[in-house]
Design a protein that fits this description.
five-stranded parallel β-sheet; mainly alpha; 5 strands; disordered N terminus; rod-shaped; 15 helices
């Protein structure tokens, strides 16, 4: 212990005489930390500086990672710890340590290892060794950096050449693609112009086709309309022909019975008229009777003046009684003409009912055939009406007036049958008079009905 204590002041004096004037080179520092880490395991915990004891149980690699700075600081500041690490280094690298003590480091040794060992062992001239190692390391680093820079520059030149070549190839390729794109664009423009021309021609053709189609459609519609009109006309003619055929067939079937009825009715009229004349005139059954041979004074004959004095007024209802007393008499009444003459303020329905009631009583009294005609030309539907007993009620068809229906009834009667028509219409009276009927004013019928 005394020897060591005596050596420590000597070392301290040597260290004071020699010291670094610059930071320890990084390469040397790493080698120093490696030497400390290798010698760390050969020391006890008590031999370690206080700041390194916490790393005593670490593995060498872990100590290098976590305790590198602490070990470098301890070697620099703690001479005893540095001496102990130096002893471990001498044991591990005896030849290098002996060469350093002799002042002749091995020429083949790594300058960084020599500098690190000199830094730990601190032989005379260690600062020069460390500085020389640092310079050598710096020179080696500079050379290595220069080589790396040169290699990098060469690589950059190579990359630049390749980039230029690639850029030239890309430029050529892009120019070729641009030329191809321009040509394709020109081709597309030509195709587009051609397409526009085709579209315009197509639109013109479409307009022309549409116009032709519209013309054909219009012509077709007109032809269809004409065909439909012709079809309706032919159907109408066919219906008329069928109706005429059916009427002719019916007339053929019923013609004989109608004519027989007309002849029988006329015969009955003549027979009853002859019987009436016989009763009225008291005609002898033979031309000469025995009484005619008796000489006597005969009464005087009536002159036309005497007959005119005995004639009835044209508005006397007795005229109507005389006409209806004729055999097979037929009374035809212009219904609305009579009602509007006698009671025009009443509704049409009540007018009809009042007139028909009076005619029913007249038919029962006289036994004559009575037909009452009403105008139905403007009726939308048939009138609901229950005809009274003994009275035939007729309405004219749409488009046919009651006057025309009265004329048809008169024309339907056989010549010679007594037909009396009640109407104040002058045109009706003249027409039926020419057909053989006897016109009577409406006021005559009204007076006759008022007596019931």
């Amino acid at each position: 212990m005394e020897a060591s204590n005596g050596a420590e002041p000597a070392d301290a004096a040597g260290e004071a005489a020699e010291s670094l004037d610059r930071p320890l080179p990084e390469g040397v520092r790493r080698r120093v930390v490696g030497i400390v880490s290798d010698g760390f395991g050969g020391l006890t915990v008590s031999e370690l500086p206080a700041q390194l004891r916490q790393y005593a149980r670490f593995t060498p690699n872990r100590r290098l990672k976590f305790a590198g700075n602490a070990m470098a600081a301890a070697v620099e500041s703690d001479a005893l710890f540095r001496q102990r690490i130096g002893e471990r280094l001498k044991e591990a690298q005896a030849e290098l340590a002996a060469a350093l003590d002799a002042g002749t480091p091995p020429p083949a040794a790594d300058p960084l290892d020599v500098a690190a060992a000199a830094y730990v062992l601190r032989p005379p001239g260690w600062v020069k060794l460390v500085a020389a190692a640092g310079e050598e390391a710096e020179r080696a680093d500079a050379e290595r950096a220069e080589d790396e820079t040169r290699a990098e520059l060469q690589q950059l030149r190579t990359d630049l050449a390749e980039a230029r070549s690639t850029a030239k190839a890309d430029t050529d390729r892009l120019r070729a693609e641009l030329d191809a794109a321009r040509k394709e664009a020109e081709s597309l423009h030509r195709k587009l112009r051609a397409a526009h021309s085709d579209i315009r021609r197509g639109e013109a053709a479409l307009r022309k086709a549409s116009a032709e189609t519209e013309a054909v459609r219009t012509d077709g519609q007109s032809r269809v309309s004409a065909a439909e009109s012709e079809s309706r006309r032919l159907k109408t003619r066919l219906s008329e022909a069928e109706a005429a055929l059916e009427a002719s067939r019916k007339a053929v079937r019923e013609g004989r019975s109608i004519e027989d009825m007309r002849v029988r009715l006329l015969l009955d009229t003549v027979l009853e008229a002859s019987q009436g004349l016989r009763r009225e005139l008291a005609l002898p059954p033979v031309s000469v009777r025995p009484a005619e041979t008796v000489d006597a004074v005969e009464p005087g004959r009536m002159s036309p003046k005497d007959i005119a004095a005995r004639a009835l007024s044209e508005h006397d209802p007795a005229i109507l009684d005389q006409l209806l007393a004729l055999p097979q008499a037929h009374l035809v009444v212009d219904g609305y003409n009579v009602t509007k003459t006698g009671y025009p303020t009443m509704p049409l329905e009540k007018q009809r009912l009042r007139l028909l009631g009076g005619l029913s009583g007249l038919a029962a009294q006289t036994g004559a055939e009575v037909t009452c005609v009403f105008d139905g030309a403007e009726l939308a539907a048939p009138v609901l009406l229950a005809p009274p007993r003994g009275v035939r009620v007729l309405f004219s068809k749409p488009g046919v007036t009651a006057d025309e229906l009265i004329r048809q009834l008169v024309r339907a009667e056989p010549p010679g049958r007594p037909v009396t028509v009640v109407s104040t219409d002058r045109e009706v009276a003249d027409g039926i008079a020419r057909a053989g009927a006897r016109p009577v004013a409406s006021v005559v019928l009204l007076k006759r009905l008022s007596r019931n």
